[in-house]
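Hey, resending since the last one bounced:
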Amino acid sequence: MRSSMLFLFAVFLFVSTFPWLTTASQALGDSSPAAQSDDEKRAMLGRVIGNQKKNDEAEMVYERIERKEIRKGPAGTPPEIKTSRVVPAGTGVDHIPVGPDGKPTDANQYRAELEKLEHSLAWAAETGRAQHDAYDKIAKKQKDRGELIEATRSAFLYVFVGREPRGDRMLSKYRMEPNPAYKPTSRSTAIFAKVRGYAWIDDEAGQLARVEVEVTDDIAIGGFLAKVYKGSHFMQERYEMAPGLWLPSYSQYDFDGRRLFVSFSIHERTFYTNYRRIGPPNEALATIRAELGKSATVNADP
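The structure tokens again:
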């Protein structure tokens, strides 16, 4: 159930990541920051889309520290706090528990977790049938994501709201509203009619800086098995974490609903810090083996 819920809100993020993937007349009206020719608009769109693709790829080769605060219940319920070193492992992501400062709290347990990661990376770095199938599944998920993003070309209407400062930079704010003329092509795209939100774009960098999405009507998941209630909310902040790469610094989920006949309430805040490039599995494997004091040779037995 939890994976389904996070997928739903991930869809919202995918949609909001590309609010400019619409026709020029929809995305930039008379109240846009400045009049632009069609060629200038296409160049701007190409820059932003290209940057987001690079950001997505970078998340698959950058490790980070995540501090997650999870509250399941009404306001006032103490949150469960988990801090992890998150390492991409080719066909998945490994979460290694660490202390609030991002450092190991138990050296032996930490080493055991690194050894598990080593095995995962060694497997992912091989080129067998099982690895091929696993990477095919990842490719399909990426293809599905691309199709959802493409659907936003006609699923939403976007209106320039104004410009807002964030630190020493200026952001352009857009309101995203469901397009009443849009015809959903799948159960996933039908969700678009029940969300709205805002996106903030750093024009100078050509990057998504912030996104907020709200559920405007109850959304059923798995037929009648579960439902997300109106008013559920998602937001994310992004900053430049490495030259030319804008990655998440903060995400927040607040949603209520029911599973079968049992109500639930999940509130989750995640802080992302200490980004570091660790590379694809073969490079990451060398790094982890070095941490373990082992040979960095990929083909050696783990």
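The longest strand covers residues 262-277.

Sorry for the duplicate.
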